[in-house]
Design brief:
alpha/beta, Rossmann fold, Glutamyl-tRNA Synthetase, domain 2, Ribosomal Protein L25, Chain P, 3 domains, 7-stranded mixed beta sheet, 27% helix, 22% strand, binds adenosine-5'-triphosphate, binds magnesium ion
C-alpha cells in the first residue's frame, strides 16, 4: 500500500496538466501556489494541498509559490506565518525565493478595482452588511438591486478614493462588483470586493483601511504571480465563475482554477476555527499538542514527513467529498517507522523480578539488534543483572492456559537474554504482587536452550540498576465519534481518555543520549518519540506515536463478534 517517493500516483489534476503541456498551453510552464491564510497552524488537510501543489510543480520542472493570503488584519498573526513556514519545510518542500503575500499586492489590487469602476463594472454601495445580505435573495428568489447601483463612474471613483483615504467609518461603505442581482449563481449577485476596516495589518501597518475580500484578492493574486493552475478545494467550485469573471473583465493573465475534494479524517476535526477553539478552551495544550491533527502536533507525536507524504499520495484525489479513515494515516506512519525506528526496551508499568540464582553484583552486556528491518543499524549492548523489571501485565498469578507470558511455575524467554522460571511471588499487605522471585537457566544465554526446549513467550525487560526513569504519554484519539464535526457541538464528543500519562517508567540505559524528536520502537509496545518540548537532559519524556497494532480495529472486531454471538 505504499508508493515510491518519486513516482506519484496518477490523478485527474495530473492528467489535466499533462494534457495542457501536450497542447503547449502556458508556454509549457507549470506554476502553482500554496495559499494559506495565516490564521492558524497547518493541519493534515493542508498537507494534502501542499503535497499536491509542490508535487505538481516539481514533477513538471515548474514552480510552486508560498503565498500568504493575508487579507484579514484581524485574525492574522506573525506567529502563524512562522509556524506555516516551519511546517512546509519540515514536510519536505522548498519555495525558494518565492515567498509572497497577498498584502504585497494591495496597491495593484486597488488599481485593478479602479479599472473596473472606470469600466462601469464596480460601484460603491452604502448599504450595511446585513442589508446586503437581506437583498441577496435566495437560490429560488432573485436579489434586489441596491439603490446606489446606478451611481456614475465619477461619483464611484470619488467615493472609492475617499474610502481609501479613511473618510468613512467601518462598514459605512463597500465596493461591489456590478454583475447581476438575478444570477442563478449567488456569487454573481454583486459580490463585495472591498470593506472598510480601520485595523492595523501585520505587514502594511496603517497604510490601508480598506481590505480586499477573498474572492477579489485571490484570483488577481494568482494572476499577478503568473500562476498556471490554481488548485483549490471543492467549496470554491461555485466561486469559479466569479474567479473567471474578474480576470476576464480586467483582461489579465488567466490561471485555470481546478477544484478537488478536501481531506476529511475520521475521529478528527479539521477546520482551523474548531482547532483554535480546542486550543483556546484548553482541551489541548496548544496547536502542537500531540493529539492535534496539525503538522506541528503530528511532528511532536513522532510522525515522519515521509509517512505524511506517502499518506497524501495513497489517499488519492477525488472530486467528491469523502472521509478517510484515520487508520490509514496510522498505517502509513507504522509502515515507515518499522523501517527506520531503532528498537529499544522500555517497561511502562514495572514489576520487579529477582533472579535468585544469578550471581550478586554480576552484570553481563548482552548484544541486541537495533533494527531487524535494517541491518546497517547494527547492534548495541544491553546490561543484564540480578534485579530486573518486566511489564506488570506480562505476569498473571492465575493465568489461563493460553497466556504465554509469566505465571507461577511458568518459563519464558527474556529478549536477548535467558529463559527464566517464576518460582514464587512476593505480595504487599494489601495482597498486590510486588515482586517475582525467578530462576534463570545459565545454558539459555541468547534466548535458546541447548536441549531444544521451547518457550512460547518472549518478554521485554530492563535491568533495575541500569534503567533510566521516564515519563511516557500515551495518546488516543481526541474524539470518540467518527465524525465530530457533524455534531451540534463537536466538543461534546471529546475522548476523556485521549491522554494517559505514566510516570516511573523504566527504559534501557542506551536512551541516555537520545535527542529530542528521535523516534524509537519500544519492543512489543509501539512507536515512541522523545518529546521536543518537555524532555530535558534530566527528565526523559516520551510520546507514543502509535501502538504496534491498531487496537481500535481489534476492539471493533471484538464488539462485532460479541454482537454476533448475542443475536
Ligand atoms: P480551514 O477550513 O481549516 O480553515 P482553509 O481553507 O480556510 O481551511 P487556508 O489557509 O485558506 O485554510 O488553506 C490553504 C489551502 O489549503 C487552500 O488552498 C485550501 O483549499 C487547502 N486546504 C485547506 N483545508 C484542506 C483540506 N482539509 N484538504 C485539502 N486541502 C485543504
Ligand atoms: Mg481559506
Amino acid at each position: 500500500m505504499s508508493s515510491t517517493e518519486n513516482k506519484p500516483t496518477a490523478n485527474f489534476i495530473r492528467n489535466i496538466i499533462e494534457n495542457d503541456l501536450k497542447e503547449g498551453k502556458n508556454e509549457g510552464k507549470v506554476v502553482t501556489r500554496f495559499p494559506p491564510e495565516p490564521n492558524g497552524f497547518l493541519h493534515i488537510g493542508h498537507a494534502k494541498s501542499i503535497c499536491l501543489n509542490f508535487g505538481l510543480a516539481t514533477e513538471n520542472s515548474g514552480k510552486c509559490n508560498l503565498r500568504f493570503d493575508d487579507t484579514n488584519p484581524i485574525k492574522e498573526e506573525q506567529m502563524y506565518i512562522d509556524a506555516i513556514k516551519e511546517d512546509v519545510t519540515w514536510l519536505g518542500f522548498d519555495w525558494g525565493e518565492r515567498e509572497f503575500y497577498a498584502s504585497d499586492y494591495f496597491e495593484q489590487l486597488f488599481e485593478f478595482a479602479v479599472n473596473l469602476i472606470k469600466a462601469g463594472k464596480a460601484y460603491v454601495d452604502d448599504l450595511a452588511a446585513e442589508e446586503i445580505r437581506a437583498h441577496r435573495g435566495t437560490l429560488t428568489e432573485p436579489g434586489m438591486e441596491s439603490p446606489h447601483r446606478s451611481r456614475s463612474v465619477e461619483e464611484n471613483l470619488i467615493l472609492f478614493y475617499k474610502m481609501k483615504a479613511g473618510e468613512f467609518k467601518d462598514g459605512e461603505k463597500v465596493l461591489r462588483a456590478k454583475i447581476d442581482m438575478a444570477a442563478a449563481n449567488l456569487n454573481f449577485r454583486d459580490p463585495v470586493m472591498y470593506r472598510i476596516l480601520h485595523a492595523a495589518h501585520h505587514r502594511t501597518g496603517d497604510a490601508w483601511c480598506i481590505y480586499p475580500m477573498y474572492d477579489w484578492a485571490h484570483g488577481q493574486s494568482d494572476s499577478i504571480e503568473s500562476i498556471t493552475h490554481s488548485i483549490c478545494t471543492l467549496e470554491f467550485e461555485d466561486h469559479r465563475p466569479l474567479y473567471d469573471w474578474f480576470l476576464d473583465n480586467l483582461d489579465i493573465h488567466h490561471p485555470q482554477q481546478i477544484e478537488f475534494a478536501r481531506l476529511n479524517l475520521s475521529y478528527t476535526v479539521m477546520s482551523k476555527r474548531k482547532l483554535l477553539q480546542l486550543v483556546e478552551d484548553g482541551h489541548v495544550s496548544g496547536w502542537d499538542d500531540p493529539r492535534m491533527p496539525t503538522l506541528a502536533g503530528l511532528r511532536r507525536r513522532g510522525f515522519t514527513p515521509e509517512s505524511l507524504r506517502n499518506f497524501c499520495d495513497i489517499i488519492g484525489l477525488a472530486k467528491r467529498d469523502s472521509m478517510v479513515d484515520v487508520v490509514m494515516l496510522e498505517h502509513c506512519v507504522r509502515e515507515h517507522l518499522n523501517k527506520c525506528a531503532n528498537r529499544v526496551m522500555a517497561v511502562l508499568r514495572p514489576l520487579k523480578v529477582v533472579i535468585e540464582n544469578y550471581p550478586d553484583g554480576q552484570v553481563e552486556e548482552l548484544e541486541a539488534i537495533n533494527n531487524p528491518e535494517d541491518e546497517s543499524a547494527g547492534t548495541r549492548k544491553v546490561p543484564f543483572a540480578k534485579v530486573l523489571y518486566i511489564e506488570q501485565d506480562d505476569f498473571l498469578e492465575d493465568p489461563p492456559r493460553k497466556f504465554f507470558r509469566l505465571g507461577p511455575g511458568r518459563e519464558v524467554r527474556l529478549r536477548y537474554a535467558y529463559f527464566i522460571t517464576c518460582q514464587s511471588v512476593v505480595k504487599d499487605d494489601a495482597g498486590n504482587v510486588t515482586e517475582l522471585r525467578c530462576t534463570y537457566d545459565p545454558e539459555s544465554r541468547g534466548g535458546s536452550a541447548p536441549d531444544g526446549r521451547k518457550v512460547k513467550g518472549t518478554l521485554h525487560w530492563v535491568s533495575a540498576a541500569h534503567a533510566l526513569e521516564a515519563e511516557v504519554r500515551l495518546y488516543d484519539r481526541l474524539f470518540q465519534t467518527r465524525n465530530p464535526a457533524a455534531e451540534e457541538d463537536f466538543r461534546t464528543c471529546l475522548n476523556p481518555k485521549s491522554l494517559e500519562t505514566l510516570t516511573g517508567c523504566k527504559v534501557e540505559p542506551s536512551l541516555k543520549t537520545t535527542k529530542p524528536g528521535s523516534r524509537l520502537q519500544f519492543e512489543r509496545l509501539g512507536y515512541f518519540c522523545l518529546d521536543t518540548k518537555d524532555a530535558t537532559s534530566e527528565a526523559l519524556v516520551f510520546n507514543r506515536t502509535v501502538p504496534l497494532r491498531d487496537s481500535w480495529a481489534r476492539m471493533e472486531k471484538q464488539q462485532k463478534n460479541m454482537a454476533g454471538k448475542s443475536s
